[in-house]
Structures are given as structure tokens and as C-alpha cells.
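The instructor's notes for this session suggest beginning with a concrete chain rather than abstract definitions. Hand out the sequence below and ask the class to guess, before any prediction is shown, which regions might be ordered.
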Amino acid sequence: MHRWVLTVLLLISSYPVLAFEHFISRQGHQLMDGNNEFRFAGLHAPELHRLEDDARGVCAADPRGWGQYFSWPTAEEQENWFQALSFTGHKAMRVYVLSVAHPADVACGRETHILAPVTEGGMPVLNEKAMLVYDRMIALAEKYQIRLILPFIDHWDWWGGRAQLAAFYGETADDFYRTDSRTYAAYLDIIRQVIQRKNSITGRLYSEEKAIMAWETGNELKDSTAEFVQKTVAQIKRYAPQQLAVDGTYLKIIPESLTNPQVDIISNHFYTTNNNNNPEQVSKDLTAIGGKKVYLIGEFGLTDSKNIAAILDAAVKTEVKGAKTAGVFVWGWRGQRHNGGFYFHKEYTGHYSYRLPGFAEAEFNQEQQVVHLVRQAQATLAGKVKPDALPVPLAPTLRAITDPLNIQWLGSAVARYYKIERSPKKLGPWQLIADKVSNAKLPFDPATDRIFADPDALKQQGTVYYRVIAVNESGESVPSAVQSWSQPI
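After discussion, reveal the predicted structure:
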């Protein structure tokens, strides 16, 4: 039996079946979970299905000059990230797009979701390795009760988008929006392939997954036309009639999308570069939509915490003729690395990605303030005065120790810091050798940075044993599994 098949079978046994009772539906300008209105706020987690590794810098072999390195998250990383989101009050999440192959991918050692046609002029092919990671993301979303918004293709080139798709057919990026082009035909076929895929973990078609709240036509498709949106959402609804469709146009509202019954959600992104990163934009959009559709702020951020607070407050409280914002996401968030520390992304504005539950080490990035603002918005939407206390952390995952000067572990999802214990015997007694150890350095480079070093181990005779305990304001985790290190002979 292939290793990945065995892994999938093991994962199937660990996930609940049909954890969600209802698909999220639309009732006028409201999202509904059964008979209850569904509203949400959160930090935007774009990379639950693909990693952009800023610590490795820019790939010199990419002629675009900014091409980066990418990889697929491990199963442990993905689950840790969903735990962090769930344990901090997230009920929904929008991820980033499906990536499209680029000629520099091989030289940069990276893979994508969408591969070139096998035969000239044929339809693109889904990368099975990538889609297994996507399967796992959807299964984890159900396990941790988080609804997903999944966009298809990007307007931009960052992960490979419309330009790279068009290149398969000798067409231009603008041909993506032309509904008689080969590029557009390929786009529609990608939609079909993805929605009709059977999840290798849950055994369901994607169209049957209640964890998928909505499909989005794409990311920031600012040149969308009425015809483009109409034909695209018709394709989505043809294959996923029980799931919602988001018009991924931004910076404008297409009038026909307000009357098209197959469009459920109108989205916008707020950024200073677009001159709309302000709380007034919320009422402008709600007024323009006029209660005809659900309104989503799919992204906003790259601004100071005061402005973030004002926009979140407007998103939660502004009402125009009975209509409110259904959901809002602050850009952007990154999770923990398999062997310790956090992934990060540095934006052109100088802002870094946020981490959960927020750390003093990122005070320069106003991380704790922003996380608190998001959690307060979640609490307000839930009718609470303040956010719930964080749960006690789960045990961290201590990795095998090959060097006591570089002891590594996958951190607990909502831990603030860690205690390190050592013993000459596997079952103890245990000695506390370090307290309040942080894994939250920002930025963190695994090639040079260390979470914890124990130089005293080099003075010990024989084998020494370690375990790690995660701590936050709610308490301490049970200890990690024990790992050992021995002096080389």
C-alpha cells in the first residue's frame, strides 16, 4: 500500500462524519446556518493549503524578480493551524487561490495546484499531490467547525494566476475575462474539476461538503464583466447548487450581480493603495448593494491598529436599511512551523503577518492589539461582552533531538510560552531547566534561529531526557512526549 494512501485511511478514522448539520444558505442579505443568522470576523489565513516561505527569500531563477519558494504544509501543521483558528473564535475562513504552473517552478523547486494540459490545447490538470492537501484542509475545517470560502483563480501573478493560465494557450492575461477565449474555457473546466472532486478523506464530492460555505470566482478580479460573472457563477451553481457563490470582483460592484439570482455574495477588499481603507467604505458598499445580496469584506489591513479598530467596528455595527456586513477578515495570518517557530510574511508596507494568540515579541507589529480587536469583534457578533478565555493548551509536539543546542517542537496552538524539563531517567524525576521560553520571534528563520539550547547537556554523562509543557493564561498543558539525547561515543 502506498504511504499516502495509508495516511489518508488513518486520517479518515480521525475525522467526524457530517459534523455540520446544514449548508450555509442565503436569505436575502443574510447568511443563515439553519434558522440562525451567520456572521463572522477573523484574521485572514490565506495559506491553509500552500506555504509561501519568506524565510528563504526570493528565487533568483524566477524572471519576474519576486518569485518565492513554496511548499505543501504537513498534516500536523495544518491541524495546528485549524486549532489556533478554532480556539480563538473563528467560525469561517477565506483562503487564497489555486496556484497555476509557471515556467520557473522547476528551477525554484515549487509545485502548484493547476498544471499545464497534457496535450496541446487540452484542459489543465489538477496536481493530485496538491489536491490531497486541499482534501485535508476541507476535512479539518469540518473537524474544527470552520466554514470555508474558496476562490479559484487570481487576477495577480503571485501564485500563478490568469496570466499563467492564458500562457497555456498562447493567449494574454486579458483573455481570461473574454468568455469566448480558450483561457476562459479552461477556467470553467477547472471549476468543474474542482467542485466534482471526491475528497480522499471524507469520501464526499466537494459539492457535498458542508464545510465549504462558498466558492469565489477568483481573487480581486477587478476586470470582471457582467457576462464573465454570469457565466462563471452559472458554472459554479451547475455543479454546486447547495453551496454559495461569491462575485470575486472588487473595487466596483457590477449592477447585474445585484439582480442575478445565482450570485449570493458581493465582496470588497480595503487597502490604502486603493484609497478605500477606511470605515466609511462599509456604509458606501452596503448602500450600493441595497440589501439585495450578502456583503463580505474579504480582506482589509496593512494599516495601524487604530484604523483596524474603526473598520472592524463599522463592519460589526453599521446597518443600512436592515443590511449588515456578514463577515470581515483582517489580512493576514500565518501559523506555526512543523519544527518550531512561526511562518511569516512581510508586506510591502512593512507590516508582518499576525500570529495567534498574539505575542509581545511582535509589539512593533501591533500584533497583540490586532488579535484582541479581532477577538472582540467575534465576541460582539456572538452577543458577548468580551472574548471567551483561551482554552488550556494542548501538549506541544517535541521533535527527536539530534543536537541539544537546537531543541525543536511544534508549538501548541494557543500557548504563550513553554517550560522545559530534563531528567537523567525517562520517567523522571524532572527538573525545570527553563521557564517562559518563547517560540514567537518575528521574523523566524529556521536556518539560523533557535528556540531553545541546552549547553549543560554537553556536560551530562549518558542519556538525558526532555519534555516540554505549554502555558497560557488559562493553565498548563500536559507534558509533551519524552525525547532523549545521548553523548556520541
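Then share the key points. The chain has a mean pLDDT of 95. The first strand starts at residue 24 and ends at 27.
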